[in-house]
Amino acid sequence: MDNSWSLSPWKAVESSGSWQVVGEKNTIIATIAKSDKSEQYARLIAASPFLLNALQTFVYIIRDEDLPDNGEFDGFVVYDLAKKAIELAGGEVAHRK
To answer: Which of 47, 48, 55, 95 is deepest in the core (most CB within 10 A)?
Structure first.
């Protein structure tokens, strides 16, 4: 899995009433207009590289193993949701050799 683009953490910072997500060398990745949810959105965007990495790691480790059904969630459905989220983010699902 090549996640070199996500090695430096992103931060959510308030700036003149709006929120910005900044990366390495304070590069602005996103600006979120002021609203009652702007801080939450900025923090979610700032966490996205780590969330993507966590999902990729989960899918890589689990692969085709049968996850247990806990009565509320079917393990296969959870695995498929993780794979779909990775695809929506433009990431790749790594496969073991």
So the answer is: 55
